[in-house]
């Protein structure tokens, strides 16, 4: 928690941190939109449409489930470690996406990428609360929001261009230099963040229930979005599981 009376961090330091965090937010948001236009090319290469929707859904489900977990782990172990881990996982998973030789490999890599993106997005918001005085946080949150707007416009354009003139693989490989650059800047500038002094206490059962419940809920909604009826056995089973597990949580 930021002390209201503590002096503001030096402006150059805030600027460097902000660049790294905004780039992380941008990359996490970009991969929600950049892939859509490359789906026909991916399907044509792997000749598999059964898992095609999960190239996007797997990323979104993993990211959504990961966000609250990163938030809690950041409170327990420190945000710097979690931020660097999320950036590193996202970047490495992007390489795996670009090297995938089957639809199954691509979906698995996208799930890992979503887990990393959840960390980048969640922890970035928390770091701003650590280094910026309360009176200025709204302005910085506005900067973050602008990254979502830019990504929503740039994603389809970049995805279409790279798929048309290079390969669909470059939709993912574009993350490598940007992700590595963001990681290096974050590693150098994210110093002096609060580090918990007490021994971490983790509610493993509660965490497991939350993961299962949210995953079942999101999978059920995703199934409906892919054309299944709300009354289908799969959807009712997933939603029923979500309600039961989240009630226990």
TrEMBL record:
<dbReference type="InterPro" id="IPR011701">
    <property type="entry name" value="MFS"/>
</dbReference>
<keyword id="KW-0813">Transport</keyword>
<dbReference type="InterPro" id="IPR020846">
    <property type="entry name" value="MFS_dom"/>
</dbReference>
<feature type="transmembrane region" description="Helical">
    <location>
        <begin position="82"/>
        <end position="100"/>
    </location>
</feature>
<keyword id="KW-0472">Membrane</keyword>
<keyword id="KW-0812">Transmembrane</keyword>
<keyword id="KW-1133">Transmembrane helix</keyword>
<dbReference type="Pfam" id="PF07690">
    <property type="entry name" value="MFS_1"/>
</dbReference>
<feature type="domain" description="Major facilitator superfamily (MFS) profile">
    <location>
        <begin position="17"/>
        <end position="249"/>
    </location>
</feature>
<dbReference type="InterPro" id="IPR036259">
    <property type="entry name" value="MFS_trans_sf"/>
</dbReference>
<feature type="transmembrane region" description="Helical">
    <location>
        <begin position="168"/>
        <end position="186"/>
    </location>
</feature>
<dbReference type="GO" id="GO:0005886">
    <property type="term" value="C:plasma membrane"/>
</dbReference>
<dbReference type="GO" id="GO:0022857">
    <property type="term" value="F:transmembrane transporter activity"/>
</dbReference>
<feature type="transmembrane region" description="Helical">
    <location>
        <begin position="51"/>
        <end position="70"/>
    </location>
</feature>
<feature type="transmembrane region" description="Helical">
    <location>
        <begin position="107"/>
        <end position="128"/>
    </location>
</feature>
<keyword id="KW-1003">Cell membrane</keyword>
<feature type="transmembrane region" description="Helical">
    <location>
        <begin position="12"/>
        <end position="30"/>
    </location>
</feature>
<protein>
    <submittedName>
        <fullName>MFS transporter</fullName>
    </submittedName>
</protein>
<feature type="transmembrane region" description="Helical">
    <location>
        <begin position="140"/>
        <end position="161"/>
    </location>
</feature>
<feature type="transmembrane region" description="Helical">
    <location>
        <begin position="201"/>
        <end position="221"/>
    </location>
</feature>
